[in-house]
Amino acid sequence: MATTTYNDSGAAPTGGAAESALRRFRRSHPVFLFVVRRVAAGLLTLLVASMLIFAAVQVLPGNVAEVVLGRNATPQLVHSIESELHLDESIPAQYVHWLGNLVTGNLGNSTASLAQGQQVSVSHLIATPLRNSLILAGLTLIFFIPLCLILGTIAALRAGRKSDHAISLSSLAIGSMPEFLIGTLLIVIFFSNLEWLPGVSTIEEGQSPFAHIDSLVLPVLTLLCVSTAFGVRLLRASLVEVLREDYVGMARLNGVPERKVIRRYVLRNGLAPAIQALAQVIQYLIGGIIIVEAVFNYPGIGTTLVEAVQVRDLQVVSVVAVILAAIYVLVNILADLAVVLVVPRLRTQL
């Protein structure tokens, strides 16, 4: 049995009181501490990701200033751009300066614009494309959630039947195809053959995507095919396991209506995997949306990233990569927190 050591004045040492208070705080605020740990881990992950992104940009061949200037490269212009981008400093100093600007919200100026004698901020350059990509991803999620719930529930409730086989095989077939292939097939069907929808985006620079709704249909449908194929399989597997639990069988034996059993016992206990599926779909959209935007020439952040790589605009490339990494980490944190809040038994293990 643990004993408390007292000092000469008879009072318990402050260390023991602090440890006791810390234990009480941990027991009374487990979710808060969990969030703190996850945020700290997320920040560490972002720091490592920023190092990798910066290193990847540095190993690209050629002098950045000379590449972006092209034929206009003169010693004076090259030196001017190198000073502007701090390329004349050591690599660790460049990283510290670059990271410090990111932390303070200063995203810097586009390298390509500097080569043209202009100063266009990266934040201004990526604001509209980032909005367009968020609209595309948001529309995909709006349709993904109900579609995944409906198809996943039907497949689980009719496990082993024809409808289950049809849904499972279709999702497996669609999920095995890459995004560019699905997008190309949709273009062939709806643009080349049926002539119902445009094959590429008709959204002009500065316009809202909602000004050309028809240009959103095929990109959203492409993303929806791949994401739903994955989400349906994951949700079906989770619901099948829940349907085998004893409490579901007891509820049915007690005469609880089937709809109530599905809503109260099956879907509620299958929410954790559904949340994880949603998180993984959002993470997929971070990478998949770049490919889809390239296929349909959609003016989103993916198209901006591809164009920045082509012209060696390394400031835009590095900033966009860090933003995508931050979204990835944030989605992970929110998904873990949602699962802990939805499943009460997990809070006892924190």
Might you state the CATH topology name of the largest domain? MetI-like fold
The helicity comes to: over 70%
> How much beta, percentage-wise?
under 5%
Provide the gyration radius in Å: 27 Å
Please, what is the oligomeric state?
Answer: single chain
Write a short abstract of this structure.
The chain is mainly alpha-helical.
Descriptive terms for the model:
single chain; 350 residues; mainly alpha; MetI-like fold; 16 helices; 0% strand
Structural topology:
Layout: H1 14-28, H2 30-58, H3 64-69, H4 75-84, H5 91-103, H6 111-115, H7 122-157, H8 162-175, H9 179-193, H10 214-243, H11 246-253, H12 258-269, H13 271-296, H14 301-310, H15 314-342, H16 344-347
Helix pairs in contact: 2-15, 7-8, 7-10, 7-13, 7-14, 8-10, 9-10, 9-13, 10-13, 11-12, 13-14, 13-15, 14-15
